[in-house]
Amino acid sequence: xxxxxxxxxxxxxxxxxxxxxxxxxxxxxxxxxxxxxxxxxxxxxxxxxxxxxxxxxxxxxxxxxxxxxxxxxxxxxxxxxxxxxxxxxxxxxxxxxxxxxxxxxxxxxxxxxxxxxxxxxxxxxxxxxxxxxxxxxxxxxxxxxxxxxxxxxxxxxxxxxxxxxxxxxxxxxxxxxxxxxxxxxxxxxxxxxxxxxxxxxxxxxxxxxxxxxxxxxxxxxxxxxxxxxxxxxxxxxxxxxxxxxxxxxxxxxxxxxxxxxxxxxxxxxxxxxxxxxxxxxxxxxxxxxxxxxxxxxxxxxxxxxxxxxxxxxxxxxxxxxxxxxxxxxxxxxxxx
Length: 336
Prior knowledge:
The chain has helices at 2-10, 25-41, 48-70, 74-95, 98-107, 112-132, 139-148, 179-197, 202-209, 232-239, 272-302, 310-325, and strands at 14-18, 21-24, 154-155, 158-167, 225-226, 250-251, 255-265, 268-269, 306-307. By secondary structure, it is an alpha+beta fold. Helix 2 crosses helix 3, helix 3 (48-70) crosses helix 12 and helix 4 (74-95) packs across helix 6. The radius of gyration is 27 Å and the shape is elongated. Residues 329-336 have low confidence and may be disordered.
């Protein structure tokens, strides 16, 4: 580990301190290494200026975390623990299994214990802020927002279909297959269309012939989708179908499809009870964005926090001056 080697050579200098606050070089290096690894995984090479910007933000977060953890009550800590458990369950689901997550963590030089500790701190500091700033909205505020923003709670029309896909590209490289293979697939899809229209069981045909790994085992069934989620040709054909209809052959960048209509859900406004939890989270977050920066700044002043590294101190001061001069943008995200 490069960080450990550097620490052995140069010690682990404190780069920021204040009452109850002490951030060491190794703590900042750990965060910055994770940011660097993520950027590299996405094929980005961070410039020195970008890296300094990330360092300033990471240092500010580390200081804020220590200040807020000092204010955590037993209830805040319990909330933080619950929030962390929920978060980690979601992450495991996302990766498919604990083993898959462990592999990913190993690749980024992190352990499960570090991930959990990070999640608990994030959940706890969030709970402290919500309590201290009284950021959770009242039911009256939530209902008012729901009534005043009807477009945010519109659920668009959705269509539900099965499909059979014959690929005309290599699934790994996305490069087109040779012309003779594409011609053979075209012939095969025309045959399958005849069989489906003659009344053969569409789900059975999909399970047997479809080359869409995500849906073939479910008889080609896709989750209901709204406009803007699928390839334009596929979407146009799917939304154009009516009861039990079967599309003509649809050609997309992936290959040849046949689509069978299962049903449509008309557009509707979601009930308040269906959106209350998400709405509470959204409004709490909006309140925190407005109130938290000034509150954390006040805590830093009260704790007489100083940045001891001269370069980081100068960069932090420049970032604060720029933030103070910028108008606060507060855009609403579309939909839920």
